[in-house]
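User: Predict Serine/threonine-protein kinase RIO3's structure from this.
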Amino acid sequence: MDSVGVAAAAPDAGPGPAWQSKCPWGAPSTTSISCSLADVMSEQLAKELQLEEENAAFPEVVAAAEGPFITGENIDTSSDLMLAQMLQMEFDREYDAQLRREEKKINGDSKVSISFENYRKVHPYDSDSSEDEVDWQDTRHDPYRADKPTTTPRRGFIGKGKDITTKHDEVVCGRKNTARMENFAPEFQVGDGIGMDLKLSNQVFNALKQHAYSEERRSARLHEKKEHSTAEKAVDPKTRLLLYKMVNSGMLETITGCISTGKESVVFHAYGGNSTTEDKVIPPECAIKVFKTTLNEFKNRDKYIKDDYRFKDRFSKLNPRKIIRMWAEKEMHNLTRMQNAGIPCPQVVILKKHVLVMSFIGQDQVPAPKLKDVTLSSEDMKKAYYQILNMMQQLYRECNLVHADLSEYNMLWHDGKVWLIDVSQSVEPTHPHGLEFLFRDCRNVSQFFQKGGVAEALNERELFNAVSGLNITADNEVDFQAEIEALEKMNEDHVQNHGKKLSTFSSDGDPPIYDE
Ligand code: ADP
Ligand code: MN
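Assistant:
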């Protein structure tokens, strides 16, 4: 890892002796970090990856760029392209005119004639008047002006006097110029006729056409990229500046590297600094979770936050950038609740925009393994199970939360116990889908421990009841799920009718309990 390179890659940071003498990004490290900070932050790499992705997704862009005239460097080709296409059209028309002359020459006055029709370049518009193409402007079948059969001029332009150049006519004139070329004397040189070069030019035309399409799509994509660039890359210049400031203020000692790049976040490891500005003790090792989200992800996750009443009012007014921040904020609030209930989880250090700094679960830069990656003795496995059962109950009852993404992927094994992480999507049980989320969590946990050989592990329905205190009696998954949804609906109806939700669910016929 090249620490100097990383510092240099932070353009917003600005040069200064302070950071030159004490590099904020820390000394190169040789420990088992899955990818280097330099890599993650490298603009070059990002561009390369971007290109790779684009090429994979839009191979025709490459195909067009390989065409004889258009190269990848031609960015603003919109008007050039139009010109080129018009030229090409003229070439093709010339070619066809020549073809027609050849045809005439061969056929002469013969009653049996050979047609070159199939060799023509230009088909769609002017093929039906093939016989007397030259005079098409004098007929009522002007293919370009079908709805204006009136004054059809003989000389290839429309209108009288000053009215010749209307906006519409400009286009028509372009086309008519092309057509007029065909009225030129037969001696007029239009190229080598049926030679190779004209065939090639047809290829050029196709390449141009294709390029026009891809160009259109490309510009649409570029526009989108510009709009959502922060969403695409977690560590954009603004984020780098945020991280830099954290180091510069002494809150963090060094950021050593990246421990995880997910779809929704990038997590870095850092050594805590000894800053005194916040009256908090900075943990010796920190995890920095940088939230990112593509528009798609953000749509998928809508349901978690949109219906969470804590964020409801704000949701509609927010732009994507602010919504990303809201995820970070949500994780912070949820972690704080858990911390207060004594559930093992990262401790919040600070939240800055979409960057959440928390205590690091692990040691010496090595993150604690996920439950899915660790092999536990059967005794530890059993211990872990009961601990999780207990944590889920605490989470539900004391924190009034459902994890909503609980699985062996979001539980770390550290210090002989299970730690819960990744709670940005956690919701309150009375969230419109809260109980469904809980049931899904229960299914994950139950399956993991049953497969892991914990004989005592409750099945998902038993676990659900044990955590929620509900008494859903359905003995099969489908009915159980239906009852869960009925409860959720009851709560929603209550909100509709009374303007507030039930504070607790009840499934045994008791009247619902309200919060006063
Ligand atoms: P994601 O939404 O990307 O899954 P997580 O919060 O689960 O985000 O973090 C991704 C990974 O980063 C985790 O699986 C874990 O390995 C690591 N990680 C996250 N937070 C911490 C932490 N506080 N301490 C140690 N490792 C962490
Ligand atoms: Mn996760």
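Residues 97 and 185 are 11 Å apart (CA to CA).
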